[in-house]
Design brief:
286 residues, alpha/beta, six-stranded mixed sheet, 9 helices, 12 strands
């Protein structure tokens, strides 16, 4: 298994004075995901939770939705370095007999490798029609804005590797009451989310219909897509959403919150899930 961090020599300059030192960097290595032996996607990731990453990716792509649909996930023994030792950079997912294997074409492989998401209305329709657990039909979830405002600090407190490297994104799942359910770090935001979703799949916890997904950066279409495909009703980001992410949220009923910083936030879609009663009461009393 690859290391999460690596050490490199750097020249540090402070107030014009240079000094040599060793710095801790976050590791970045490619992971090839194969489906029944056929290459499906390559993503650059921080090693660790590779099986969960592969499983979560397949949930996001609409291939699987239940743990029993995955027969096993293994590292490919034939993928070796020059010295013959395993690279642990290739995983193969085998589906349970009877679970349909999608047609893996070159076009699909290029799309997944680019990690850019589908574009325009075709992408919106694809997510809406392939989601197993429509968010609009999920059990009602109410979240207080005052609770959302404390979640970024709680996420930051859980970023162990970020403290040493400053180079990782993080994603966390919280209950509507603010209980931390899981947190993952990775050099890619989308990988951190896939690791969360994959862990939920493999432990039989999908759909995540009573959860809030918090990401440490912006909310792209791809992250909104992953939330919808996992049945997550609320996605919050500390930075901005993209226009297509907002379109997808409106289309699917996802609650999308951006610029969640300090005591403020912007709600771009799904405001019906925010419990504003306490806020209104507090405002009336001032």
């Amino acid at each position: 298994m690859g290391r999460v961090t690596e050490r490199r020599r750097v020249l540090r300059i402070r107030d014009g004075a240079p000094s040599a030192r060793t710095d801790t960097l976050v590791a970045e290595e490619p992971l090839e995901i194969r489906l029944s032996g056929k290459p499906l996607a390559v993503t650059m990731r921080t090693p660790g939770d590779d099986f969960a990453l592969a499983a979560g990716f397949l949930v996001s792509e609409g291939v699987v939705g239940r743990a029993e649909e995955v027969a096993n996930i293994v590292y490919c023994a034939g993928a070796t370095e020059g010295g013959g030792s395993p690279t642990y950079n290739v995983v193969d997912v085998r589906l349970t007999p009877g679970v349909p294997v999608p047609d893996i074409t070159l076009e699909r492989n290029v799309y997944t490798t680019s990690s850019c998401g589908l574009c325009g209305k075709a992408g919106l329709d694809a997510v809406r029609t392939t989601a197993r657990w429509p968010i609009a039909d999920s059990p009602p979830v109410r979240v207080g804005p005052d609770l959302l405002t404390v979640l970024p600090d709680r996420l930051r407190a859980e970023q162990r590797v970020f403290d040493r490297t400053g180079g990782l994104h993080a994603a966390a799942l919280f209950s509507p009451e603010g209980e931390l359910l899981d947190v993952r770090e990775d050099i890619g935001r989308h990988n951190a989310v896939d690791k969360l979703i994959g862990r939920a799949l493999l432990s039989g916890r999908l759909p995540l219909s009573r959860s809030v997904l918090l990401v440490s950066g912006r909310a792209s279409f791809e992250l909104a897509q992953k939330a919808v495909m996992a049945g997550i009703p609320v996605l919050a980001a500390v930075s901005a959403p993209s226009s297509l992410a907002v379109d997808l949220a409106v289309e699917t009923g996802l609650t999308l919150v951006g610029f969640l910083r300090g005591g403020s936030m912007n709600v771009y879609a799904g405001e019906q899930r925010l419990d504003l009663r306490s806020e209104a009461t507090a405002g009336a009393g001032t």
